[in-house]
Each structure stands twice: as C-alpha cells, then as structure tokens.
Amino acid sequence: MLSAWLEDSSFAAHLAWLSAVADIDLSAHGTVSDQATIKDTAVAQPLLVASSLATGWAVAEDLFSRADLLAGHSVGEIAAGAGAGAFSPEAAMVLVRERGRAMAEAAALTSTSMTAVIGGVQEDVLAAIDAAGLTPANYNGKGQIVAGGTVEQLAAFAERPPARTRLFPLSVAGAFHTAHMEPAVRHLAEVAAAMPTGTPSTALLSDLDGEVVTEGRAFADRLVHQVAHPVRWDLCMATMAERGVTGIMELTPAGTLTGIAKRNLKGVELFNLNTPDQLADARAFVEKHSTKTAEV
After folding, report:
1. Which residues are identified as catalytic?
2. How many whole angstroms separate alpha carbon 128 and alpha carbon 90?
3. What is the pTM of this model?
C-alpha cells in the first residue's frame, strides 16, 4: 500500500515521525507485513490514520484546511479530527494506538466478527439483525448495513438471511461499534480525558449522528463513545448533501467510501488517491472544488 509513497522523501519523513509517535513501524506494515499482521486491529488502525494524514499532506501541506468538510468512517474520524485541528497529529497517533490496542483486547474476550448485508428492505434487515441478537454496527447508506456480534450469532443469521439480501462476512478482528467494545471505551475515556484539544478550523462531521462538531473536546468525547456505538455514515452523507458538497476526495487507502458515495450522492465528483503519480490530478481536484483560498 505504501511502497510507492515511501519513494517520496517528504512522505517518508512524515510517516517516520508518525511511526515514532505511535511506537509502531508503519513503514514495514505498509509495505511488507503479511495479511495476518495487518488484520490485527492494533496494527491496522494506526496504519490507516497515518496513511490518511501523510498522503493528505503529500497533496498539500494545507489540504485539510482547504477542505470545506472533513469526515472519516470509524477510525478514519481520528485522521479527520487531526486534519481539522480538533487535536494534534501527535495526539491522534497516541489515541489511535491506544484505540487499536484496547479494541484488540476487547475483541479477544469473545469470538466476534461482522457481516455486510447488501440489499433488502432496511426495516426488514434491521428487524432480522435484532432478532439474531446482532447489532447494526455500520449504516453505510442505501442497501448496505453491517451487522456485528458473536461468530455463532452471525452463523445463525447467515442460515436465515433477510429476504432479497446478500451477505458478505468481513475479514475483521471483532465486532467493532457494538457492546462488545465497551471494555475499550473505559480505557479510551481515560486517555482522551487528558488529551489536549482545540477548535476545529474545518467543519468536522461525527459518525455518531452526522452532525457538524465545532469543539475539539466534544469531538474527542464522541470518538470514545462511538467505539461501542454504530457508525452512521448514512447521516454523514446526508449532511454532505445538505451542505452542497460537489467533490469528495478519499485518502489512501481509497475506494470504499467513494464506492458508497457513488450509490448515495449522485452528481458528486469522486477522487480516489492511492498512488503518488495521482498528486497533480489531486491538486487540480482541490482547486476545482475547494471554496477556500490556498495558504501562501
């Protein structure tokens, strides 16, 4: 994922700094680590946040302040918060390191996982998820809800799926954004309580309800709470539509959220940033869609 990016000296320096703060070798995990290692949420979460921040800075040092709106799905919220100035990049890496470790420990307590439910009538899908004892952990817009719970619950759910749906088991370490993550919430609340925060300089969306958050401490508190509560990406997209978003850039690793946006935000131009040879086009995309003047 990061091999080509690490050929850029500025990107490499940024990633080395974020690695040092998190005390994790993100360069190795972004290039040579195997699938089992990357699946470990204690590794995956810091890697995702660092990748988003470093590739964003590669586009422009002021990219995040040029944005009219910043949002992240699940752990991506931490990168969005750092980009908006709700807290520093260094604080973000400490928070995501602790989040990853705490969620990995919570996941180890019970054998849990997640399954994407595609299609069907939402009311029927939610009723079936509830009947199976599962949690609708991600609301990802039209025709996609992710259910989380124990492996046994998910197996029973797969035997009796909701009408007109397709089920896709996800390769994840546990049932994130469900009550199974409550042990992680307790630890993160202690970490976040002492984390310095600031006033976001860019409008910042919360996965809890799709609302714009204007105070860093409130956003940090929401991040902690949201670990054991569903991701309402559907409501985030609704806010994007209400605010007249014309273009969405997804940072590395890109493709998932723009894929969802393609189905839900018709007419919005999308850009997936995955390799450094796209940087010139990415900068042109920013110039086209940002309503803010570049910093001099």
Report:
1. 74, 177
2. 42
3. 0.95
